[in-house]
Write a structure and sequence with these properties.
By secondary structure, the chain is an all-alpha fold. It has 2 domains: about 1-60; about 60-93. The chain has 5 helices and no strands. The chain is elongated. It starts with a helix and ends with a helix.
Protein backbone atom coordinates (compact mmCIF):
# COMPACT_ATOMS: atom_id res chain seq x y z
CA UNK A 1 0.00 0.00 0.00
CA UNK A 2 2.89 2.35 0.76
CA UNK A 3 4.31 1.76 -2.72
CA UNK A 4 1.06 2.93 -4.30
CA UNK A 5 1.08 6.05 -2.14
CA UNK A 6 4.66 6.86 -3.11
CA UNK A 7 3.88 6.42 -6.81
CA UNK A 8 0.79 8.61 -6.38
CA UNK A 9 2.75 11.53 -4.95
CA UNK A 10 5.37 11.31 -7.70
CA UNK A 11 2.62 11.24 -10.31
CA UNK A 12 1.00 14.30 -8.72
CA UNK A 13 4.28 16.25 -8.76
CA UNK A 14 4.81 15.19 -12.37
CA UNK A 15 1.34 16.48 -13.22
CA UNK A 16 2.11 19.80 -11.52
CA UNK A 17 5.37 20.12 -13.48
CA UNK A 18 3.60 19.29 -16.75
CA UNK A 19 0.78 21.80 -16.20
CA UNK A 20 3.18 24.45 -14.92
CA UNK A 21 5.34 24.05 -18.01
CA UNK A 22 2.31 24.50 -20.24
CA UNK A 23 1.26 27.66 -18.36
CA UNK A 24 4.74 29.20 -18.39
CA UNK A 25 5.36 28.41 -22.07
CA UNK A 26 1.97 29.85 -23.00
CA UNK A 27 2.68 33.07 -21.09
CA UNK A 28 6.15 33.46 -22.60
CA UNK A 29 4.97 32.88 -26.16
CA UNK A 30 2.22 35.46 -25.66
CA UNK A 31 4.75 38.04 -24.40
CA UNK A 32 7.04 37.31 -27.34
CA UNK A 33 4.29 38.15 -29.82
CA UNK A 34 3.19 34.66 -30.82
CA UNK A 35 -0.09 32.95 -30.08
CA UNK A 36 -0.62 31.40 -26.67
CA UNK A 37 -1.48 28.15 -28.46
CA UNK A 38 2.10 27.74 -29.67
CA UNK A 39 3.44 27.92 -26.14
CA UNK A 40 0.65 25.76 -24.79
CA UNK A 41 1.36 23.08 -27.38
CA UNK A 42 5.11 23.13 -26.75
CA UNK A 43 4.61 23.11 -22.99
CA UNK A 44 2.18 20.21 -23.11
CA UNK A 45 4.06 18.08 -25.64
CA UNK A 46 7.64 18.74 -24.54
CA UNK A 47 7.04 19.77 -20.90
CA UNK A 48 10.06 21.58 -19.40
CA UNK A 49 11.97 21.40 -22.70
CA UNK A 50 9.14 23.39 -24.32
CA UNK A 51 9.70 26.24 -21.85
CA UNK A 52 13.40 26.29 -22.71
CA UNK A 53 12.59 26.35 -26.44
CA UNK A 54 10.23 29.31 -25.98
CA UNK A 55 12.84 31.15 -23.90
CA UNK A 56 15.37 30.91 -26.73
CA UNK A 57 12.80 31.54 -29.50
CA UNK A 58 13.34 35.10 -30.84
CA UNK A 59 10.69 37.66 -29.97
CA UNK A 60 8.84 39.61 -32.65
CA UNK A 61 10.02 43.23 -33.00
CA UNK A 62 6.76 44.81 -31.84
CA UNK A 63 6.02 42.36 -29.00
CA UNK A 64 5.54 43.13 -25.33
CA UNK A 65 8.81 41.25 -24.67
CA UNK A 66 10.74 43.77 -26.81
CA UNK A 67 8.79 46.87 -25.77
CA UNK A 68 8.33 46.30 -22.04
CA UNK A 69 11.04 43.81 -21.17
CA UNK A 70 10.89 40.11 -20.35
CA UNK A 71 8.89 40.13 -17.13
CA UNK A 72 7.53 43.54 -16.20
CA UNK A 73 5.77 46.47 -17.67
CA UNK A 74 8.51 48.96 -16.84
CA UNK A 75 5.75 51.38 -15.82
CA UNK A 76 4.64 51.92 -19.42
CA UNK A 77 1.87 50.52 -21.55
CA UNK A 78 2.63 48.96 -24.92
CA UNK A 79 1.19 52.03 -26.67
CA UNK A 80 3.48 54.39 -24.71
CA UNK A 81 6.53 52.24 -25.43
CA UNK A 82 5.66 52.13 -29.16
CA UNK A 83 5.22 55.91 -29.25
CA UNK A 84 8.62 56.43 -27.61
CA UNK A 85 10.24 53.96 -30.00
CA UNK A 86 8.72 55.70 -33.04
CA UNK A 87 9.71 59.13 -31.72
CA UNK A 88 13.29 57.96 -31.22
CA UNK A 89 13.37 56.42 -34.71
CA UNK A 90 11.86 59.57 -36.23
CA UNK A 91 14.43 61.79 -34.51
CA UNK A 92 17.37 59.82 -35.89
CA UNK A 93 16.31 59.92 -39.54
Amino acid sequence: MTLIAILGTKALWGLYAWLGSAIIASYLSSRKGYSERLGLALGMILSVVGVVIILFWPAKPDSRWKLQGPFGTGGKTVAEARAEKEAAAGGEG
